[in-house]
Write a structure and sequence with these properties.
The protein has 75 residues and is mainly alpha-helical. Helix content is 41%, strand content 8%.
Length: 75
């Protein structure tokens, strides 16, 4: 079965506790009082990020236009 998108109106405390215990909550975000439970980045997303970083870091160094920082995962 392919993955699907879903809306859960009431999230059980047990689900939130499990996500926190396993670290799955690292990408969860609160937007306007609505909790968004996001999956971990996929291997393809990580590959694209790696290529983007490999391109941007030398460019930023050459032009002194800024610094590239890795997201901390801390909201």
């Amino acid at each position: 079965m392919a993955s699907v998108k879903a809306v859960i109106l009431d999230v059980r405390p047990e689900l939130l506790a499990r996500r926190q215990t396993t670290g799955e909550d690292r990408w969860d975000e609160m937007w306007g009082g609505v909790l968004h439970l996001s999956p971990a980045p996929s291997n393809e997303q990580q590959r694209i990020l790696d290529e983007l970083v490999a391109h941007l870091v030398p460019l930023l160094r050459e032009t002194s236009r800024g610094t590239l920082r890795e997201p901390s995962g801390q909201g």
